[in-house]
Amino acid sequence: MALFILKRLGLGLITLLILSAIVFFAAQVLPGDPARAILGPFAQQSAVNALSRQLGTNRSVFAQYGTWIGHVVTGNLGTSYAQQAPIAPILGKALVNSLKLAALAFIIVVPLAIFGGVEAALHVGKLRDRLITIFGLTATVIPEVVTGIVLILVFGLWLNILPISATAPPGSGIGDQIYHLILPAIPLVLILFGYISQMARAGTVEALNSDYARTATLKGLPRGVMIRRHILRNSLLPTITVIATQTGYLIGGLVLVEVLFNYNGIGKLILTAANQKDFPMLEACVLVIGAVYILATLVADVLFTLLNPRIRYRGVE
Amino acid sequence: MSVDTVPVESAAAVGAAGADVRRRELLRELKAQPAFWFGAFILGFWILSAIFGSLVVQDPLAQTLSKINQAPSSEHLFGTDQLGRDVLARVIIGARPILIVAPLATLLGTVAGTALGLVMGYFRGAVDDIVSRFVEAFLALPLVVTGILLSVALGASNTTLIIVIGIVFTPLIARTVRAAVLQERDLDYIAAARLRGESSLYIMFAEILPNILAPIMVEFTVRLGYAVFTIVSLSFLGYGLQPPDPNWGSEIAANYQQVAAGYWWEVLFDALAVASLVIGVNLVANSIERGLDAS
Amino acid sequence: MRDARSELENHYIDELVAGRLSRRQFMRKGAVIGMSTGLMGAILAACGGANKVGTAASQTSSAAGGGASSSSAPATKGGTLKLAMQTPATAINPLIVDDAGGLNLLAQTGEFLTFDNNLLLHLEPMLATKWTPSKAGAVWTFALRPNVKFHDGSPMTADDVVYTFQQLSNPKNASNALSTFAGVLKPEGVVKVDANTVAFHLEAPNGNFPYLVSSDNYNAIIVPKGTDYAKWQKTFIGTGPFKLKSYTTNVGANFDANPDYWGGAPNLDSTQFTFYSAQQPQILALQGGTVDVIVQFVVQGAQALLNNSQYNIIKLKSSNHRELSMRNDQAPFTDKRVRQAIALTLDRPGMVQALLQGLGVVGNDSPFSPKFPSTDTSVPQRTQDLTKAKQLLQAAGHGSGFSTQLVTEQYEEVPQLAQVIAEAASKIGVKINLKVENQSSYYGKATFGNSDWLDGTMSLVDYGDRGVPNVFLDAPLLSSGTWNAAHFKNPTYDNLVKQYTAAVDLQSQRQIAGKIQTLLLDETPLIIPYFIDGLTATTQSVKGVNPTSIAAIYLKNASKSA
Predict the structure, then answer these.
(1) Is the Cβ–Cβ distance between C472 and C463 less than 8 Å?
(2) What is the ipTM of this complex?
(3) Predicted TM-score (pTM) of this structure
(4) Alpha helices, DSSP H, located in B196-247
(5) Using CA of residue C213, residue C216, residue C222, residue C223, what is the dihedral sign?
(6) Distance (Å, whole) CA C17 – CA C350
(7) pLDDT, tens digit (0-9, with 9 covering 90-100), for B150-201
(8) What sign for the dihedral angle of Cα A291, A297, A301, A307?
(9) Is residue C516's pLDDT more than 70?
(10) Which chain A positions have a beta carbon within 8 Å of B228's beta carbon?
(11) Which of B257, B259, B263 to mutate to probe the C interface, most C CBs <10 Å?
(12) Do C303 and B69 touch (CB under 8 A)?
């Protein structure tokens, strides 16, 4: 197992390296150049040239990439072109903000989706199952922008009960912060609900059909007790793994939610960095997101393997 | 759908005939599902709107600067926007670009993803390992971010949007196809084809492909919903289609700032249109998936 | 009173008496040539009822950066003012800053030689108390305010001013002020006369030079000699009424009152700026009471604030505008009749109503905003005339119309304006296809051949407010202009602009302006449909804020009642 994890981590590092190279070189096709983006369209070309020399962006792409990667391996994320400040603290703050939002979404969605999934599984093929399944699948593909707009209109403007800006005033306590994050979390909840409830449903169906469950039913164990004691535990396994794999999606979804609700998270940071051609910032964001995705996938696979002995070492590649 | 029982010599031919039978069974399954009919109705509505909408509604481009931001009334059922254009007309005609871009983009992604997945799954080994790293790297990047990088690099247009979404979908579909190929490649009929000395290209596309069409079809329908999702999201961020021709994502982006002023009709109907289209596509996709499972 | 006045000063007094100069404009022009506010007040009083226009101009504030003079009651002392502003796009480096967010932060702790008071539309002393041109206007001498201290306690002297302007005008530096100083000022032209006097030896005579060292040129805050500009954002060191408490990238900035300020301590104890990347949350924050002030907003989506008695809306006349350039070197726009025809299709008053909710004025296809005193208002206004437009198109051989592309940026109401223009042009058979890009794609490298902005057949761009039209007249329209998206090359025009720049007195400035306006109206290298008012919103409890049209806000005299 340890060997497996090591191998996966190694592959993960290679993936990150490829990712950073793809983004770095792909970003070169973006119009304009960093110094021009910082100084604005109306700056004199001589000023732009001077800034390019200061930033080192007048060098070849390979030299720039080399410098950047050299810093990264020594644990230095570098300096933002646009902000002329170390990236780590800026990125750190944004990441924490995004994680707060993601955490709230998970806290809301996990119990709901597991309940929904189990409920559907207990009524397989019936109307209730069909409704939950279709609701889940549908919610999963409605863009966050669309749900976000409807939520803003209904709860923010018509009922006026929830703030439509995700950022709490400076110095707010945790309660106030959560209050501001409720609306932005809902589009994420809707999208995740489909995935997680489907997994919970599948896990439960499988558990219900297992020999163990049949024996327990034959022995006259009350249904409620059986569900709580055994089925739920078994159905949780695949659910945990799907939660881990959805972390990757979540970060992508955050870009839109953060823009819509004006929230200073990593999604908005990466968008700004791409627009400003702030390569070090863009790369740092991409690396962090990539690392989170790869780690989450690894954790998902490890959990899946550990908790489900039947497919140990087989289902993972 | 057990391939083992089919005589190996004519796997391809029988595969095609089998597909025919399956298609008939699938249709029968679908007809029995109310969800399918509901989804098809919504889809049909938007397709008809896109084609014939202009016969019914006002000119979606006609501006009346003296009548901007007007609330819904009998004259303008969905109100007017910030240039005094009829919102109803813009919602109806706004179906057009999405219904053109989404299927084409999904098709592109499916074709490219299938080809890539076939190669990865069939050759395995070094080819698979290397391509897999790239696919992984691609998937580690948020879809919207990839979309933005590509859109900015290629310049905004319908064609760009098709290419961008096609590229973004390719690795996703490739992963599914690869998994399907891995299940097929060790079966007897493939071994037989190899013994006959068929080329790899022939085996991949003439032998394996017909037998993995079902998962590819499911993938296509599911991705169709995501294509709408992606178009709307990219348009909202300003990387979508060009004005003044209406499309739902750009309408939401252009009028979103008006919400605080109370002009809710300028975004709500577009948002509901997106939601309904996506629901329609999804109901149909889900019904097909169930139908395939059952048949 | 007149005997002691210079020739130029007497000229302005004559203009005032003759009624060619309103009181407001007199204050403005007088200030440019360094007449003191007190003197101008005395002259205005002496002129008595000669000119009743703009009496508000006589209520000048005594300290530079003074607030709106509307309140006569004593201001409330103490408190923290909370403001919503645009997130600065880049590091707060005075050399580099080029965006609304960044320049407003510079203005919080930094000060300029002169202050362009946008409320009163005149130039005021700030760190300079007096300035005088040489006869031809090629050398300007500034007397510095004595006993001014930087926030670290060190005195502000001529050495600091010389250092500041040498850095700003050095072509080897990444300085944004170069777009103002190129061809005007070189580092060696900045000369220390004595500890409290600095002379600027210009490359060519320039009648409006005091505006180029004013708060208009937002990079030009005076910093201590030897300042490392890249590290400035750690201290925000300046001479202003507030000093830095904390600055957090992308989040906000807090400032405390400077008790040692040369103009006396400000009313407020502190100010707190929160950064927003969009306007809508700023409006909601004001409505929700989270902030007291929105430093600057645009009218789209802000309609709820406009007619609400809970809020004070400060409207500033501005030269902020949009320019639609047509490639004068590319068919069909090589023919000026085609360019005129497009310009004639626009319903300008309708556009101001619809796109700006009436908060702006119509433009006449030249950058001379009605805001500038030198603008010749007798040049006839172009109005919509579709018949004439069709005739012109016919005469140019395009009677059946043509098809072309307009490229523009996603910025404020610009995409909507592009759609209105396309719709208007379609009425004379011209089909305009739009290409709306995000700003980085649109501007590209901002050099010819590498920029949709400069290369597009039709290109629609935004220009922010300036105190004087010089910048608008130069780079976007001169034959050698680096922002000449219209590719307009006209020697007569070039020569007129040279004369205009050199002209020191208003009479000749206005005379040349009239010629330039007439020439541009005839040639129509570009279309300027309107000028947009600068808008600031505060709650009713806030008094004395002094915003500018470039989105900086001066808070020395601001106060907030409980």
Answers:
(1) yes
(2) 0.81
(3) 0.86
(4) 200-202, 209-211, 213-236
(5) negative
(6) 37
(7) 777 777 778 888 998 998 889 888 988 888 888 888 888 888 888 888 888 8
(8) positive
(9) yes
(10) 141, 143
(11) B257
(12) yes
